[in-house]
Amino acid sequence: MFISFEGTEGVGKTTLIRKVYEHLLAQGQQVQLTREPGGTPMAEQIRALLLAVNHEENMADDTELLLMYAARAQHLQQVIVPALAAGKTVLCDRFTDASFAYQCAGRGLSAEKLQLLNANFVSHMPQITFWLDAPTELGMSRARERGALDRFEQEKAVFFEKVRAGYQTLWQQEGARIKRLDACQSPDQVFEQALSYLK
Ligand code: TMP
After folding, report:
1. Average pLDDT, stretch 150-167?
2. CA 51 to ligand 1 center in whole angstroms
3. What is the pLDDT of residues 45-57, one digit of tens each?
4. CA-to-CA distance for 32 and 37, rounded, in angstroms?
């Protein structure tokens, strides 16, 4: 089973993943917990480049997209595919839907570019994706409380509105895979909602 978790900043993804992880472990499952961009030493270096705020030049939107997929290719080959082959459940904090929401809906890149990358470089897709949805202002204030903001978190509210709308589009198109969770609920309620889908 391959499960991904999506949403804009500060919606409680990390808390939910941790709860699902502990629940599956307690059931005796073998679970691989991982994240994107990142999840391997090399992909984590690409992540650092993507999130850094101190670049001397602006990162081109195409560069951002391609770095996401460079990290993803590495992550698939090193972590996701071997874990699935070993019969583990993979819990992944973000996957290709984030590229659609952030790079296409948010930055304005064409969906064709993404489809090209997905068709050529993504061998496995999640069976189920949890989209934690909440008003973007709620999440942004939580992100601000956490401390220094990364290159994405520094974006303005209008960017996150576009990202949220991108997730909404995906959810409407792929309702069989993508499950919307109301992230305004308490962490326990969000977890219960997720569990009801997993059952
Ligand atoms: P995180 O803060 O949830 O760990 O994710 C890091 C940032 O990377 C987050 O702001 C969303 C962004 N991102 C993309 O823009 N495209 C992608 O494909 C992925 C995986 C993440």
Report:
1. 96
2. 8
3. 999 999 999 999 9
4. 16
Q: How far is it, in rounded angstroms, from Cα 96 to Cα 68? A: 9
Q: How is the chain split into domains, by residue range? A: 2-35+89-198
Reduce the DSSP state of residue 4 to 3 states and report it. Answer: strand
C-alpha–C-alpha distance, residues 136 and 87, integer Å: 36
d(CA 182, CA 159): 21
Superfamily of segment(s) 2-35+89-198: P-loop containing nucleotide triphosphate hydrolases (3.40.50.300)
- Is the whole model's pTM more than 0.85, yes or no? yes
CB atoms within 10 A of CB 162: 18
Indicate if ligand 1 lies below 6 Å from the C-beta of 47. no
- DSSP per position, 23-83: HHHHTT--EEEEESS-SSHHHHHHHHHHH-S--SSPPPHHHHHHHHHHHHHHHIIIIIHHH
With left for phi above 0 and alpha for psi between -120 and 50, is residue 38 left, alpha or beta? left
Distance 83 CA to ligand 1 centre (A): 22
